[in-house]
Specification:
Shape: globular
Oligomer: single chain
Helix content: over 70%
Structural class: mainly alpha
Strand content: under 5%
Order of helices and strands: HHHHH
Length: 137
């Protein structure tokens, strides 16, 4: 893999790791605040808080995988991570868009988060298209 493509993959995984680590930690530590800023309403039941914290743990796990995977930006594992993060970013964008269209849900950080996930999804697609196929062994 050419060095510039490897560096771009490393940067993508690094940025994703940092952004999602912050999000995951916020969902674990201050879920009500993050949800209110994102969706415009605070969670109001213990079930809501539990689901938010479980989501935070999952997002933090994705962040750790991206952060650790950045050192192997030219390998199969990194390609798998970029593919997984593409799915994640597209899914988050679709879920948020549906919630806005169907229920009018949005908070002060809603559109910046949507745009951020769209941007990361586009970056993942660009990495996937630019990366040569790695033959299976």
């Amino acid at each position: 893999m050419p060095e510039t493509m490897r560096a771009n993959s490393k940067l993508l995984l690094s940025v994703t790791g940092v952004v999602e680590a912050a999000t995951g930690l916020a969902l674990l530590l201050v879920p009500a605040l993050l949800i209110e800023v994102l969706l415009g309403a605070a969670p109001d039941t213990p079930v809501d808080m539990t689901v938010a914290r479980v989501a935070g743990a999952a997002v933090l796990a994705l962040a750790v995988a991206c952060w650790l995977g950045r050192h192997e930006a030219g390998g199969k594992a990194a390609r798998g991570l970029v593919s997984a993060m593409l799915l994640y970013n597209v899914a988050v964008t679709a879920i948020l868009a549906f919630s806005w269209l169907r229920h009018g849900i949005s908070g002060i950080a809603f559109w910046p988060v949507v745009v951020g996930h769209v941007g990361l999804a586009v970056w993942c697609v660009a990495r996937g298209l630019a990366s040569p196929r790695i033959a299976d062994r």
